[in-house]
Amino acid sequence: MRHTARWIGGLVLATAAFAAERPSTTPTARSLPGKGVFVTGKREMFDFPDEVKKDPLVAGFQVSLGWSDLEPEKGRYEWSQIDQLLADCEKWNKQAAFKFMTVGGKVMSDGQLSKGKGKAGPDVEGRNTTTPAWLFDDPAVKRFGGIPTPKGKLPLYPVFWDPAYQKHLEDFIAAFAQRYNGNPRIEYIRMGGWQVGTNEPSFYGGASEFLLDQFAAEGMKIPADKNMKEAIRGLAGDSPYSKAVISMIDIWRKHFTKTPLAATIHFSKEAGSFEEAMMSHCFANHIMIMNTGLNESDHTESRTAYREARDQHGCKVGWGGITHIGTKLSKEELEKRGHSLRLEAVMQGIGDDNLPGYAPASKVSYLVFGFDFTEDAEAMKWAAEHLVE
Prior knowledge:
alpha/beta; TIM Barrel; two-stranded antiparallel sheet; 13 helices; globular
């Protein structure tokens, strides 16, 4: 029996089947946990400390997958790290989750530079380390970037609505699905972080303001009354970028018919916006919606949205990262509450601060944190008890 599971924004969200079909011929096949705390590390991290593997409150591991690592040459695939992770999950009775990325690397934004991250200047050259280099050997593939800016030379990015690019991407997804679709140890796959055109696939912080002419040349309308940052963050729901993301979601849906799929999209009900178009498409197609975390300024509204997504659309809700929740509380305020910042963040994310004791209200199914989060036993226990399947 197939159900539908979905996640929703502001937290890590995923839209997928509540219980994906599993091949009956697989002797180790079992039902998905359907909820739980997942731990994650850096992109190249596929192994985790033994104490995390042994922790009964850890449901599984989320790892990032770069397209360039998985297909270093056209048609030649590297699956060994994924296979080893799945073997470890089998050994430790855990689940695997994947965050797939198609682009990476950037010239830093002003905000990042002001914090001492990265460097800028004419001699700096950005590198896109996640799009396979061979992709740009195909003259049919359109690309952005490759131009000098005051912050450095921009790397090349694919034009995401280019049919030649999407054909290469579909070739990979088809091969990926042929090997792993319906694998009983895979909890979900995050197809990409499609947030207002600045995440993945992305125009990346620091790059967008220099690419407007290239965007316009490839059919994107740039409002004359918008500054460069607003033009990218205010993408319309019928823009080429929006249509490209919908097309890529549909490619994943076409090939992964048994494994739950998730998308990272901010929640919005603003008619005609990129976010609203993405949410609507995910709701209609039972896709889990994932985000990176809640902010104190919007978490009450977001929790209501997550609950509606679950109740009205059958979408599971997930949440990743503590972000800003609870960070405005002083150590003394936390001591008065009698618990840690991590527990405060989990309670605010899962529960409803308008109800006594943060009574659960959001119907969150998944939390994704760095593995050091598991050191807070109280927060882990509270999360495990209040996540919903």
